[in-house]
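Weekly structure sync, notes
Attendees: PL (lead), two postdocs, one rotation student
Agenda item 3: pending single-chain targets
PL asked that the sequence for the first pending target be pasted directly into the notes so everyone works from the same version. It is reproduced below exactly as submitted, 315 residues in total.
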Amino acid sequence: MSKEKKKLPYEDEFVKWLEEERQVKPITIESYLNSLGVISQNLPIPLHEITPETLRDYIDVRRDDNTSDSTIAKELRVIKVYFMFLWVSERVDELTYFKVKNFKFKGDFSRLPKVITKEQVRAMFEQIDPGGHTGIRDALIMFLLYRAGLRVEEARLLDVEHVTTRDGQIWLPTSITKYSKEAYVPIDGENFKKILNIYLKKVRPKWAIEGENALLIGMHHINSGRRMTQEGIRQRVKKLAEKAGLPSWVACHALRHSRATHLLDDGTDLRIIQELLRHSDISVTQIYTQVSKELLMKQLKKHAPEEEPIEDLLK
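Predicted structure, written out during the meeting:
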């Protein structure tokens, strides 16, 4: 049996403050707690004792783990929210709060999203166990993250009604989307539809406990029959990537990035990709044009023909 997750200092009070004073959505609160859990694991001191010095050490630790600066920046923003709570609830003094609040992080945010090739995506699908219920569910996870371009938390929070109330579409209500904007995402491809139907008719009914509305159901340990956790989904994707011999950085979000890049390579209009990924600004989507160019250069270099015989011309 897995260990119970250790609570953060003043966790209940922090959650209540976010809900009542800041009107923060449950999905965002869960994201905050997950980030704070990661931070806590990488610090030698309790969260409420953080100083600018320990934050600098924390950044070094995360960079050593190859964590992107954009992820580190997000975690630092969460720390600042947490310290605002500590300050307004008089658990830290004003000077301590402002030292953390004013901490500056000069990260490198120019790095492009990492993507994998279509062949590598196919290799991940080929690692799925064809002989059991877990394989059908893992295939559905892959389709949701790659074909539908969902964020991992959006996939996790899907209920059955979100994929059955609209013909050929996934309904994303405001309660589960990143920017509180309702969206409809096409169930793209015949194999996607077939796997979804098999899962809904033959797999999910045998595993979901009574009253559970979640689409993706856990099939292992204490979470069996209930909504999958973020970590559970990540582990399934990681396992497929490892079995396919892919780099260690390949994870859930890489599938979303890769889907956008592959669509662009196939000539899909940038506005269509923006609609699929639900970017509020087209400039966010445009970063994939740079990724596509980089991927092209790598492929050309890898499959370059023999150099032309022009030695005499170069003398």
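Discussion points:
- The chain has two domains: 11-101, 118-292.
- The chain has 15 helices and two strands.
Action: rotation student to compare against the earlier draft before next sync.
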